[in-house]
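USER: I would love a firmer grasp of how sequence relates to backbone shape in proteins. This is the protein in question:
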Amino acid sequence: MTNTLAQIVLAIWLAEGGTNASVPYGILSVPVRDKEEARQVCARTVRNNLRRWQAAGRPGCFYNWLGDRYVPATADPRGNVNWKRNVRTLLKHQQCNCRKP
């Protein structure tokens, strides 16, 4: 994975609707005061899941791993697929071959 934390967080911000989002960064797991706190929660989520992915032996594409935790398929199957595709497209990453979620 070669994208920076800031790039990933920005991609999530955009994938979740950017300035038009009713829920900044898609943060539903905890109450947040404002966009800045939502950004901090998002960054912490990405950082924590990167560590978990690395500890698990880097199985598959990190963005698929993150998407399965950020928007679980069990809670929103279509949202999970869309989130992964949108974030990958926004990042235009090429470090793994993960065209399909």
The chain has a mean pLDDT of 89. The CA atoms of residues 13 and 19 lie 8 Å apart. The chain is about 55% helix and 0% strand. Residues 5-91 form one domain.
